[in-house]
């Protein structure tokens, strides 16, 4: 156990359960558990959102000005586990594949980026009058996500890990950009010619449909693999494990079919 972990653990000596693990296992053990817990929680959120995806895909469905302060605050709080999981996932990818082993410095970056992002999100939610081009916003975001995904793919593809593990890291890198961008997009206003009810130009419509499909598939796969990993670590019975993995796979495939079909219908 390193000195930094001991120092950090001492700060939490008065917290039940957490203090014991902080002192015996180290702070980064707790961070790892937080990553898993938020991951499992976010899978359930993604599944629920897919089942209620119609209002999610409707242009102008979210208007921060029309929400009460309490609702806006709760939505802002809901963004926290998404952002922590995304940025900490980026830290883990850098740790595993790029030799960035200075955990203390990396955690400071995770905390700093999370605070900056949540501050920007709060500002967008409070002001609510920013204009953004539907096509160019997602074009920039997608290009950045694909470039980062390609960089990680080039690094992990020749390793001895399974194809499923590799796709987990690649999808995680893709989602590291796409998920924060998607949450921000919910509180950005489209140009008046679009929100006014006119038809979105065909190219923009088709392109955004592709973006949403990529986001949907990546989120479902990433979540499913995360659940597979969790149940594999804690279920010793091979029969129960096989049934659990089969159930996760079936639910994921069913949601993918539903989400893809609804996305194509709405767009």
Short key terms for the protein model shown above:
globular; mainly alpha; disordered N terminus; 267 residues
Describe the structure.
This protein has 267 residues and is an all-alpha fold. The chain has one domain. The chain contains eleven helices and no strands. Helix 5 runs antiparallel to helix 8.
Q: How is the topology of this model organized?
A:
Layout: H1 3-10, H2 18-24, H3 27-51, H4 53-57, H5 69-97, H6 103-127, H7 134-156, H8 163-185, H9 192-195, H10 202-234, H11 238-266
Helical percent range? over 70%
Shape: globular
Largest sheet: none
- What's the helix-strand series? HHHHHHHHHHH
Strand content: under 5%
Distance between the termini: 53 Å
Radius of gyration: 20 Å
Query: If you average the pLDDT, what whole number results?
Result: 80
Question: What structural category arises from helix and sheet content?
Answer: mainly alpha
Overall structural domain count = 1
Low-confidence stretches: 1-10, 192-201
Overall number of strands: 0
Q: What is the overall number of helices? A: 11
In brief, what are we looking at here?
It is built from eleven helices and no strands.
């Amino acid at each position: 156990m390193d000195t930094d972990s001991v120092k950090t653990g001492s700060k939490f000596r008065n917290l039940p359960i957490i203090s014991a693990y902080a002192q015996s296992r180290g702070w980064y053990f707790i961070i790892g558990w937080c990553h898993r817990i938020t991951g499992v929680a976010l899978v359930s959120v993604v599944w629920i959102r897919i089942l209620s995806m119609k209002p999610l895909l409707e242009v102008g469905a979210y208007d921060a000005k029309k929400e009460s302060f309490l609702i806006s605050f709760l939505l802002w709080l809901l963004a926290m586990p998404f952002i922590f999981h995304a940025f900490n996932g980026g830290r883990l990818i850098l740790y595993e594949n790029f030799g960035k082993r200075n955990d203390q410095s990396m955690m400071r970056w995770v905390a700093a980026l999370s605070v900056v992002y949540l501050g920007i999100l709060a500002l967008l939610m409070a002001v609510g009058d920013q204009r953004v081009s539907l096509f160019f916003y997602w074009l920039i975001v997608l290009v950045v996500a694909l470039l980062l995904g390609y960089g990680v793919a080039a690094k992990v593809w020749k390793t001895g890990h399974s194809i499923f593990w590799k796709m987990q890291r690649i999808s995680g890198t893709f989602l590291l950009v796409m998920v924060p961008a998607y949450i921000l997009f919910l509180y950005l206003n489209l140009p008046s010619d679009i929100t006014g009810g006119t038809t979105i130009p065909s190219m923009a419509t088709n392109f955004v449909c592709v973006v949403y499909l990529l986001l949907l598939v990546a989120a479902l796969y990433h979540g499913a693999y995360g659940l597979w990993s969790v149940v594999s670590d804690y279920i010793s019975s091979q029969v129960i494990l096989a049934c659990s993995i089969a159930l996760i796979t079936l639910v994921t495939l069913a949601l993918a079919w539903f989400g893809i079909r609804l996305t194509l219908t709405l767009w």
